[in-house]
Amino acid sequence: MKKIDAMRSVDFFRKEFVAHLENKVTTKEPTNLYEPITYILSLGGKRLRPVLTLLATDLFEGDFRLSLDAALAIEVFHNFSLIHDDIMDDAPLRRGHKTVHEKWDTNTGILSGDAMLILSYQLLENYDGNTLKALFQLFNKTSLEVCEGQQYDIDFETRTNVTIDEYLKMIAYKTAVLVASAMKMGAIIAQTTKENQELIYEFGLNLGVAFQLQDDYLDAFGDPKTFGKQLGGDIIENKKTFLYLKSLELGNSTMKSELLNLYSLQPAKPDVKIAAVKAIFEETGAVAETKSQIEKYTHNAFKALDRLQVSEEGKNALRVFGESLMQRKV
Question: Is 27 a member of any domain?
């Protein structure tokens, strides 16, 4: 079995993927349909999902180049969902730049997003036989789950009785399933065993949940110098994150009443609100519980990793990658 260098692999695969993206995705006529697509895809980001597709193919001793179109399909789909999410949230910025609907208009955002969804499926046409069937089945399941996750997220904005289990299901569907599917698609293309395919999916799913829980934590308690956006954004928007729900579960009646009251306010200067909410998060033990859950899901991911039938070097590469994600500051 070949040896994989973890850090080189991530950088190497990211560069290979970006080169493939730039070669495949170009602006053509009608410009107003395709320019927003090249724009959103050029804004960068971590390229986490496509890198994982390529890394998974390589892990199972397949040719990563065969996975480039599947990786691009994942990235195009992910960015399609971001365009539509930004419209629903009326978000002005994405990765520090104007969102598509702000730079153009809402109708353009909807139509260009629709085209991206179709393009993501079109990219999978480059596979055939059982590989094509397996990829389509997984992609269809995942796409629907992402939409379900987004609907849960919208529903939770107006619900007062969201449970922890419902929240975890929402972030699993909205975020983690796409990470898991990105890895499983690489495994499918490498034609590894069904057991390996399911285990790499389990690894990605648990890592994806841990990643999102850490996002919740960093939004409130991250380092403002490295976080890249205003701290407390979720608090300002009264989002029912894990920290919020756990505070309601663990806090006494006074803490609960104060938190509910704070989440009913939209002050002109939110700094005082953010500080008060963060204090409740810490006092109730919700911060400690969030960190514990991040560790739990990361541990579950590594348990699945241990059962994979691959080289120890390959396992270590993914373990280092997973640990680097959990130690991030942004």
Answer: yes
Residue 155 lies in a domain: yes
CATH number, residue 61: 1.10.600.10
Exposure on the CB side of residue 7, measured as CA atoms within 13 A: 2
Alpha helices in 100-241 (DSSP H): 100-103, 106-124, 129-158, 164-171, 177-189, 194-221, 224-227, 233-236
Domain with 187, as residue range(s), is 6-326
Say what the pLDDT of residue 276 is. 96
- Within a domain: 1: no
CA–CA dist 287, 283 (Å, integer):
8
98 phi/psi in degrees, rounded to 5: -60, 140
- CA dist 19 and 9 (Å) reads 15
Q: Say how many domains are in the chain.
A: 1
Amino acid present at 175: T
**CA–CA separation, 311 and 309 (whole Å):** 7
Cα(194)–Cα(187) distance, integer angstroms: 9
**β-bridge pairing 93-94 and 97-98:** antiparallel
Task: Report mean pLDDT in 10-residue bins for the chain, 330 residues.
Answer: 52 95 94 97 91 95 97 98 93 90 97 97 96 98 97 92 96 97 98 98 97 93 72 90 97 96 90 96 97 96 96 89 77
Task: Evaluate whether residue 258 is within a structural domain.
Answer: yes
pTM assigned to the model? 0.92
